[in-house]
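Fold this sequence, please.
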Amino acid sequence: QVQLVESGGGLVQAGGSLRLSCAASGRTFSTYVMGWFRQAPGKEREFVGSISWTTSIIYYADSVKGRFTISRDNAKNTVYLQMNSLKPEDTAVYYCAARRSSSYDYAYWGQGTQVTVSS
């Protein structure tokens, strides 16, 4: 049973920082891509960024490029999303997800963690 558990969300003022964690368990993720997504109230879920366990190739959405950083800790099977210079428009539920590197479909999702940025 694959399990992804996010943590680290909370309330922060604009300009502040938060670090989200995604602990993965249940299988070997060496051939997987881990993604971060977010969904704000009344909006569709959007891609934030991703990292490959195998190649460490990282992608970011333009909206977060230069402010957010994705990293991983192989020993802990954990992926991180460091969010700096937060803006009110970053307010959303943030989700961690996993897909096989050979697929475009994120098959596994965490429960989400709320990030609220006050102005």
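The chain has a mean pLDDT of 94. The first strand starts at residue 3 and ends at 7.
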